[in-house]
Amino acid sequence: MTLLPRAVRLAVMATLDIGLHARARPVSSKQLAARYDLPPRRLESLLQALVRGGILRSVRGPQGGYELARERRRLTLAKIARAALGAEGESEDLAQIEKALGFVLEDVETGLFERLEQATLDDLAARAIEQGYGERADAGADFAI
Question: Which among 52, 59, 55 has a CA at the least distance from the CA of 72?
């Protein structure tokens, strides 16, 4: 059983991808959708929720797309998850599970979000780079104003 809704997993994946690939120029939603074989409309609404949540910044124009709104080390997975959950709203399945499991899920969710508060996008990026996904960057060079 997966505890995190699909929207949260997609949000973390998209944010990580953008954090790893948006160094030279923003990553377009079309690039992300093609890379992960996702429906562009579904992904676009999630990306906009991440913009509203202060996780991503939208860049307009022909070379536009999305980039991180903050440094990777300042983006906790909990912030990303909360922004994604705000976009998704209460799913019917999640509501039924909560009803059935009640207090147990509260404890699990509290523990999960405590752990997500400790983990940053930078931690996740380092693991992805160790596994050969993305490029290693100079320390502190992952954010531009």
Answer: 55
- Three-state SS letters, 120-141: EHHHHHHHHHHCCCCCCCCCCC
**Pairwise pLDDT comparison (145 vs 119), residue with the higher score:** 119
The domain locations on the chain are: 6-130
> What's the CATH class of domain 6-130?
mainly alpha
Beta bridge partners of 57: 67
Assess contact for 29 and 143: CB atoms under 8 A. Answer: no
| Closest of 98, 102, 104 to residue 85, by C-alpha | 98
Its pTM stands at 0.65
